[in-house]
From TrEMBL:
<keyword id="KW-0004">4Fe-4S</keyword>
<feature type="binding site">
    <location>
        <position position="129"/>
    </location>
    <ligand>
        <name>dimethylallyl diphosphate</name>
    </ligand>
</feature>
<feature type="binding site">
    <location>
        <position position="46"/>
    </location>
    <ligand>
        <name>dimethylallyl diphosphate</name>
    </ligand>
</feature>
<keyword id="KW-0414">Isoprene biosynthesis</keyword>
<dbReference type="InterPro" id="IPR003451">
    <property type="entry name" value="LytB/IspH"/>
</dbReference>
<feature type="binding site">
    <location>
        <position position="229"/>
    </location>
    <ligand>
        <name>(2E)-4-hydroxy-3-methylbut-2-enyl diphosphate</name>
    </ligand>
</feature>
<feature type="binding site">
    <location>
        <position position="229"/>
    </location>
    <ligand>
        <name>dimethylallyl diphosphate</name>
    </ligand>
</feature>
<feature type="binding site">
    <location>
        <position position="228"/>
    </location>
    <ligand>
        <name>isopentenyl diphosphate</name>
    </ligand>
</feature>
<comment type="pathway">
    <text>Isoprenoid biosynthesis; dimethylallyl diphosphate biosynthesis; dimethylallyl diphosphate from (2E)-4-hydroxy-3-methylbutenyl diphosphate: step 1/1.</text>
</comment>
<feature type="binding site">
    <location>
        <position position="228"/>
    </location>
    <ligand>
        <name>(2E)-4-hydroxy-3-methylbut-2-enyl diphosphate</name>
    </ligand>
</feature>
<feature type="binding site">
    <location>
        <position position="272"/>
    </location>
    <ligand>
        <name>isopentenyl diphosphate</name>
    </ligand>
</feature>
<keyword id="KW-0560">Oxidoreductase</keyword>
<feature type="active site" description="Proton donor">
    <location>
        <position position="131"/>
    </location>
</feature>
<feature type="binding site">
    <location>
        <position position="227"/>
    </location>
    <ligand>
        <name>isopentenyl diphosphate</name>
    </ligand>
</feature>
<feature type="binding site">
    <location>
        <position position="228"/>
    </location>
    <ligand>
        <name>dimethylallyl diphosphate</name>
    </ligand>
</feature>
<feature type="binding site">
    <location>
        <position position="46"/>
    </location>
    <ligand>
        <name>(2E)-4-hydroxy-3-methylbut-2-enyl diphosphate</name>
    </ligand>
</feature>
<dbReference type="Pfam" id="PF02401">
    <property type="entry name" value="LYTB"/>
</dbReference>
């Protein structure tokens, strides 16, 4: 706690990225149009509050496609799925809505294109993450997973002359570049992808945290434990000079002891976090003496992705609006 007025340095950009906003809205619009239940394979985005809120409205989250009753409708999450999942859905005669983030789809297409040229792919990412599984599934015979700099020495390839690296979109920029540097030491002919795979929103949020961290006695990142980009923000804060950093799902997880003697709190949120959760944290910190909120903006984001084409076509044929541009209703407190 602080005995004198404390301040919050609020990172901007923070919270929802365009891909998350699109995916969450896809589930909301599907529930409005089709009614409950609407099945969703995996968590639509990695945020506990979002998943629980959508579940309360009638979304049914399943781990695998075979849990969806034959002939029903299923939405694929923002993290993407492999061709095998699409094939299984077709076998079960499921109507599918693919809410894969377009930036993840870009990486999928890159994997297919390189595999078609018989180029081996060193995929930098976290083992078991849905996005990695989806990308690897596009070219399973050509993909080698590299989990970080320390895994580089274990990589074996058929032809070191024909290699390219791709990455999960939500990684630490600095760690990824270090992994690439070490890979290139081993494989000098390693080619770069045609464009940076780490998503613009991931990079922007990390840059904002880096700007604030040196001035922060404590840095708070709002985000769920299974959110890769949220976990990375905590690491980035510590690496960039914050004296302490913690991740919380909600304001209820804040520990007053973290703020003893602190004068400045840095605050950001992962790309799957609705703004209401950040506002709750600001309110709680205000109760504890941190009433001066200063936004620190390092970039402005105005990218909007259209709804998934399957849903867009259905809404259009029904004479309903199929355009986007609003914030999802999860940005306000649920009724």
């Amino acid at each position: 706690m602080t005995s004198s007025p404390g301040r919050i340095l609020l990172a901007a950009p923070r919270g929802y990225c365009a891909g998350v906003d699109r995916a969450v809205e896809a589930v909301e619009r599907a529930l409005e149009h089709y009614g409950a239940p609407v099945y969703v394979r995996k968590e639509i985005v990695h945020n506990t509050f979002v998943v629980e809120s959508l579940s309360a409205r009638g979304a049914v989250f399943v781990s695998e496609t075979d849990e969806v009753p034959v002939g029903e409708r299923v939405i694929f999450s923002a993290h993407g799925v492999s061709p095998a999942v699409h094939a299984e859905a077709a076998q079960r005669h499921l109507d599918t809505i693919d809410a894969t983030c377009p930036l993840v789809t870009k990486v999928h297409k890159e994997a297919v294109r390189f595999a078609a040229r018989d180029i081996e792919i060193l995929l930098i990412g976290h083992e078991g993450h849905e996005e990695v599984e989806g990308t690897a599934g596009e070219a399973p015979d050509h993909v080698h997973l590299v989990t970080g700099p320390d895994a580089v020495d274990d990589v074996t390839v058929r032809d070191p002359e024909k290699l390219v690296w791709l990455s999960q979109t939500t990684l630490s920029v600095d760690e990824t570049m270090e992994t690439v540097r070490r890979l290139r030491e081993r494989f000098p002919k390693l080619a770069d992808p045609p464009s940076d795979d780490i998503c613009y929103a991931t990079q922007n949020r990390q840059v904002a945290v880096k700007k604030i961290a040196p001035d922060a006695d404590v840095f708070i990142v709002v985000g769920s434990a299974n959110s890769s980009n949220s976990v990375r923000l905590v690491e980035v804060a510590l690496e960039s000079g914050a004296r302490a950093a913690h991740r919380v799902d909600t304001a209820a997880e804040l520990d007053p002891a973290w703020f003893d003697g602190a004068g400045t709190v840095g605050l950001s949120s992962g790309a799957s976090v609705p703004e209401i959760l950040v506002r709750d944290v600001i309110a709680r910190l205000g109760e504890w003496g941190f009433g001066d909120v200063q936004e620190v903006r390092t970039a402005t984001e105005d990218l909007i992705f259209s709804l998934p084409r399957e849903l867009r076509a259905e809404l259009k044929s029904a004479g309903q609006s199929h355009t986007r541009g609003r914030s999802t209703s999860l940005d306000v407190a649920p009724h």
